[in-house]
Amino acid sequence: MHTSSGNPLDTAASTRQPARGPAAYGYTSAVHRHFEQHPCPGATEPGRVVRVDRTLLLVGVTDGLLHLPYPLSGEPAVTGDWVWIGPNRAGERQILAILPRRSELSRKRAFEDSSAEQVLAANMDTVGVVVPVDRPLTHNRLERTLVAAWDSGATPLVIVTKADLAQVADDVVGKVILQAAGVEVVTTSAENGDGIDELMARIPPGGTIVLLGPSGAGKSTLINALVGREVQQTGEVRSGDFKGKHTTTARELVPLSNGTVLMDTPGVRGFGLFDAGEGVDAMFGDVEELAAGCRFADCTHGNEPGCAVREAIDSGVLAERRWNSYLKMQRELAALARRSDVAAQRAYQREWHQKVVSAGKSQRWAEREGSERANRKGGKDRKRKR
């Protein structure tokens, strides 16, 4: 990341207020201050990454859109990044720096053994988790996506779509409200225009919302309804498995007339968590509060007396499915931390070795104790016979 070189002239030049910025893509006074706080020598204008293509970046600037090469150094740019732009040696515009992200939506890369992060979007104010009512509700998927949304630094929002297609819409909405405790839920029907105004009211003026959901969830149809014209292609959903075509092939910013910016994303099949401890805390705060109320600090939440978690499950206060989901995410994050932290992995191996040795000793002790008891009993029997 580029910063000021320390030269007063460079600093003065780089902190000059940009005359204009890409307002259609969320350039507000708050963003302008963000640029002022992170000057870049030689930069002449601000821009925002609208789409990441294979060889070029589509960048929004004051006077339109530019196709610019990737930055020569630093981390890769993602859709939503704010960037400083300036001339290269030939006088052509190039990206000089990527500004620090105010929010960042990420997940673990798809292949199982990876411990690498995949950043999906940057600088969004709201993460809209799209839940269609025309298919069974996948509780674990919703929880995972909300955990990632909370962890991003943006505000999660659940958007129920296709409410006009199913008689069970009210039932699905009720289940979503219960599961997404603390997160606002908006019900929409893009075909009928229902809920669109309510959704727009949930997005801050000039803010950016990224839409997340499986293929065929109705994201593109929803965007078309919000924009007021067809800007995204839509596809049919198979009735057998509820899978839809990936009508969106890249993450792209779509500006609205009121200054709000939408980001559509391709259908996400899975959501492996990456360093999402804060998101888990936010999503499962009730579970962790219960665990803190156990009688013993090292309670394993099994058969110990005074276990608040087991009492809550047995009484129906806490669904066992939700508890198991929490445990699975904790194991997943711990496994990821072990893979990415060699020291933690070595400590884990030492601990595991100690457990194996201890278990072996316990087993040998139990066998020896059993043998001695048998010998003592045999001796007593022989004495009685005499």
Could you walk me through the main structural features you see in this protein, from its secondary elements to its overall organization?
α3 packs across α7 (277-283) and α10 crosses α11. The chain has helices at residues 8-14, 29-37, 139-151, 169-179, 196-201, 219-227, 277-283, 285-292, 308-314, 320-340, 342-385; strands at residues 45-52, 57-61, 64-68, 82-87, 93-98, 104-108, 117-122, 126-132, 155-161, 184-187, 208-212, 252-255, 261-264. Residues 1-19, 110-115 and 235-248 have low confidence and may be disordered. Helices cover 37% and strands 19% of the residues. It starts with 7 loop residues before the first helix and ends with a helix. The chain has 386 residues and is α/β, with parallel strands linked by helices.
Essential attributes:
single chain; alpha/beta; five-stranded antiparallel β-sheet; 19% strand
List strands and helices in order, with pairings:
Layout: H1 8-14, H2 29-37, E1 45-52, E2 57-61, E3 64-68, E4 82-87, E5 93-98, E6 104-108, E7 117-122, E8 126-132, H3 139-151, E9 155-161, H4 169-179, E10 184-187, H5 196-201, E11 208-212, H6 219-227, E12 252-255, E13 261-264, H7 277-283, H8 285-292, H9 308-314, H10 320-340, H11 342-385
Parallel strand pairs: 8-9, 8-11, 9-10, 11-13
Antiparallel strand pairs: 1-2, 1-4, 2-3, 4-5, 6-7, 12-13
Helix pairs in contact: 3-7, 10-11
